[in-house]
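Lab notebook: predicted structure, single chain.

Context: the supervisor wants predicted structures on file for every construct in the current expression panel, including those that have not yet been purified. This is the next one on the list. No modifications to the sequence; it matches the entry in the shared construct table.
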Amino acid sequence: MHSVNMLQAKSSLSRLVDAIERGQEREIVIARNGRPAAKLVPMETSPGGKRIGVAKGKFDVPDSIDTHNAEVARMFLGEQS
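Prediction complete. Output recorded below exactly as produced.
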């Protein structure tokens, strides 16, 4: 565990965050007047996986899906039909 004072944290925040992101530090304690005040730790991230196309083949899109596009566009523009 690494500890820094508030002034040091303010002037080197980018470097401290880099150290956390790279795994060089697991946590950094930020102290105010010699007393621990906050802790800088890595975010828990969910495993990034394939997202685009995950529903492909799960449902059928009807041929008429675009039938009302012009009407919907007019409604968004506040025009009367």
